[in-house]
Amino acid sequence: MTVTAARTLTSAMACFVGIGLPSTAANLARRTHAPGLWMIYESGTLGAAPDTLPLSIGDGILAETADSVVSVPEIFNYWLQPGRIDVGFLGAAQIDRYGNINTTVIGDYTDPAVRLPGAGGAPEIAASCREVVVIVRQSRRTFVESVDFVTSVGHGRGPGDRDRLGLPGAGPTRVITDLGVLEPHPDTRELTLVSVHPGVALGDVHAATGWELSVSPDLTTTPEPRPAELAALRGLTRS
Prior knowledge:
Elements: H1 2-6, E1 14-17, H2 21-31, E2 38-41, E3 45-48, H3 60-65, E4 68-69, H4 72-80, E5 87-90, E6 94-95, E7 101-102, E8 105-108, E9 111-115, H5 122-128, E10 131-135, H6 161-165, E11 172-176, E12 180-184, E13 191-196, H7 202-207, E14 214-221, H8 227-238
Parallel strand pairs: 1-2, 1-5, 5-10, 10-11, 13-14
Antiparallel strand pairs: 2-3, 3-4, 6-7, 8-9, 11-12, 12-13
């Protein structure tokens, strides 16, 4: 999952990185095939290049290794909202068939079963980055028919919703899980399984999805991680 997510990034990209799995994947890409990847964290660090995985957006290693540190309003007003960020890398507590993300509450908003960390900068990332990649472990608890709260808009309820809402970015272009890879169908914008990871059966993916999952007629198997990628990942997580 992490290696597949890392492969979506190139040295030519400016990437807005979320903490957790997105940060692991982005840092792996920078250590392997994309040394020029320009990583931006919400705390205001531009071009961060940490030697170890940051514990949070406030980890001092981000500021120590960044090209520049600016205010949070500048990150959003000057870099994100004008569309200067190529890709936003996000996680999710819940995601639905149209790529809408919930990181706010599980259950009713006024009386939730679980209160989650909240939005942070994710709604702006989902709205304004040129594209969004979501990395999340797949289960029926996470992949739900309808999210309990729309924290970050994906493709709304289908084609044209992002335009109607005035959201400039393309929205989620890829959802990478521990089972496979999903992409929005060009016509319906519904997440469609396009690749399964080695050793994963199609039935496993259906069983971990809370809706009737669409499958591409050109379904492929995800290329396996190369030894050098695994070595870099293990070195990164041991650091």
